[in-house]
Design goal:
- By secondary structure, the protein is an all-alpha fold.
- The protein has one domain: Tetratricopeptide repeat domain (Serine Threonine Protein Phosphatase 5, Tetratricopeptide repeat).
- Helix content is 75%, strand content 0%.
- It contains 6 helices and no strands.
- α3 packs antiparallel against α4.
- The chain is globular and about 45 Å long.
- The two termini are 17 Å apart.
Amino acid sequence: MQVRTCWTCTCLCRGYGPEHPQTLVALLDLAQWRARSGDVAGALAGYNQVIPDLLRVFGPHHTNSLTARTDLVEYRGLLGDPAGAVRELEQLMAECLHVLGPDHPDTQRVQDGLEHWRQEAEGQGVSRKPRPR
C-alpha cells in the first residue's frame, strides 16, 4: 500500500500541484503508512514537511490540520519526548475545545493522547504503537 500511496502522491503533485488539497491528504496518508510500517522517524519527517502547506491551504482549525498536528505530536512522543508531547497537546486541547467543543471526536482524541503522554512523562505510562487516525 505504501508504494501505491507514494505513486499516488507523485501523480497528484504533477497533476494538481504540491499544495492541492488532494495532494496534501495523500502526503498525510503516506506519512501515516510510514508510521504503521514502523518508520516513526520517517512519519515525523513527512508530517513536518506537509503541515506548513496544510495550515496554509486548510487553515489551522480545519479537521485535517488538527488531526495532522495531533499525529505529529504523537510521533514526537513515540520518539522519546513525552514532556514535549504534553506541552503541545495542551495547546491543541485548548484549540479543539474552542473550535470543536468538548464532545467532538477530534477533541476526545486529543484528550486521550494528553492523558497518555502525561502518564508517560511521569513514568507511569504503557508503551503504545502508532495508531490510525
